[in-house]
Design goal:
Length: 281
């Protein structure tokens, strides 16, 4: 069997099709509503984890991927998770996202971190971006926009220097989400759709030489039961689970693990940072 780029492209497609999350992929409007709901809270968590995100970007700076003259496109920028630390080191960062509230929060965070003059918010989808080499670096961090061969390889046409993908190495754990998934759907959550193995092997097979760094990431954050209830109602709606039974499952579980009206969620993962020159070897 020949393990060429098309083999890995097909393996990636199969991983997406067999993922527990596959049912929700087409529901772009529901995803946008979810991201708009969570934007403010997402930004607050980013502030708590800024040292982690800043360290990743500092590493890219040391490797020459980010330079003072760099113009960067951050695909699926969210509330500025990486756009903010990038803007501290680059000339300009364009944050692309399909959720208006995320972009509004990113603008606010750029003001807070005093980099507003270097951050541009752009509403839109990755497939709408012209395939011209307008950026020194194209970066995507845990972004659903990069999900197959074509969306990955487009990064090499839009960048004139480097591509960078920040994703997961192996499974990742979201404590509350994983527990509720089992209860709501009747099956444990399983998904390898964001695993590094597929984009890495595609790039390598196509003649690129990706660089890798791995980081262990752990976080814990606490929100009110009221917030988590709305969060998970909105989240499970993406996958077609809604109504009185789903609501009862969500509220029942959250109240069972709450302390003083609040629940703590824990995230554990290995984060892979992969970067490569867009000129082939």
């Amino acid at each position: 069997m020949r393990y060429d780029s098309q083999f890995w492209a097909e393996a990636w497609r199969e991983a997406r099709q067999t993922s527990s999350l596959a049912k929700g992929y087409p529901n772009t409007a529901a995803w946008t509503a979810f991201w708009d709901l969570t934007a403010d809270h997402y930004a607050l968590r980013n502030r708590e984890a800024m040292s982690f995100h800043d360290a990743l970007v500092a590493m890219l700076e040391r490797e020459g991927v980010v330079q003072p003259h760099s113009v960067v496109l951050d695909v699926g920028c969210g509330p500025g998770t990486y756009a903010i630390p990038l803007a501290r080191r680059a000339a300009r960062v364009v944050g692309l996202d399909s959720a208006p509230a995320m972009l509004e929060v990113m603008r606010r965070e750029a003001e807070f971190y005093q980099v507003a003059g270097r951050v541009e918010a752009r509403l839109g989808a990755w497939d709408e971006v012209p395939a011209t080499a307008d950026f020194d670096l194209v970066l995507a961090a845990k972004s659903p926009a990069i999900y197959d061969y074509d969306s990955l390889m487009k990064m090499n046409r839009v960048a004139r220097g480097y591509g960078c993908l920040i994703t997961f190495a192996g499974p990742y754990k979201l404590g509350l989400r994983n527990a509720l998934w089992q209860m709501v759907t009747g099956a444990p959550i399983k998904s390898a759709a964001f695993d590094l193995i597929y984009p890495f092997n595609i790039l390598y097979s196509e003649g690129y030489l990706p660089n890798l760094r791995f980081y262990e990431y752990r976080s814990a954050f606490t929100e009110s039961v009221a917030y988590w209830t709305e969060y998970f109602r909105c989240y499970f709606r993406i996958f077609g689970y809604e109504g009185p039974e789903t609501d009862a499952t969500i509220t029942g579980y959250l109240h069972s693990v709450a302390v003083d009206g609040h629940c703590q969620d824990q995230e554990e993962s290995i984060i892979a940072v992969m970067w490569w020159r867009v000129m082939k070897r």
